[in-house]
Write a structure and sequence with these properties.
173 residues, alpha+beta, Aminopeptidase, 8-stranded mixed beta sheet, 5 helices
Length: 173
Amino acid sequence: MVKKYDVFETDRLYLKATDFDDSKLLLELLNTPKWIRFIGDREVHDIHAAKQYIRDRMLPQYERLGYGNYCMIRKTDRMKMGFCGLYDREGLDSVDIGFAILPKYEGQGYTFEAASFMLDFGFNTLNLSVVQGITDKENIASQRLLEKLGLRSKGTILLPGDTEETIVYQKTI
């Protein structure tokens, strides 16, 4: 049986395994201009599609590996702000760290806090030796965050189903 990692706690956040209760946040986040520009339109335009996205794209990895996508919840008011996690992504050699936060919470250190925790979890609990991160060539904020987390650019890659190359970052221990 796979050990499941449901909830984590950092100084300012709870990181809760994503479930259907997070559909509203996912719907909002996937339709922000930055998401659409840098990641793409996932055709999630109503709450039913958000729940289907969680069911089809997020829960299977969690069930298979015991970890995956986590909802970032601010401790002070239990506000759901974004997502962060470790992903088994097709086309990459190792686990991918990913993150996204609603624009009104950007620049406050929440994503760095969540992603730092996820890296530590990956290396020290899951015993990963390599974690990668991918980002659009124009997404400077994401590139800076990956570098602040200690990942270094390894060049570009064309992932399955994509039409443009993306930058691959990597951290090895």
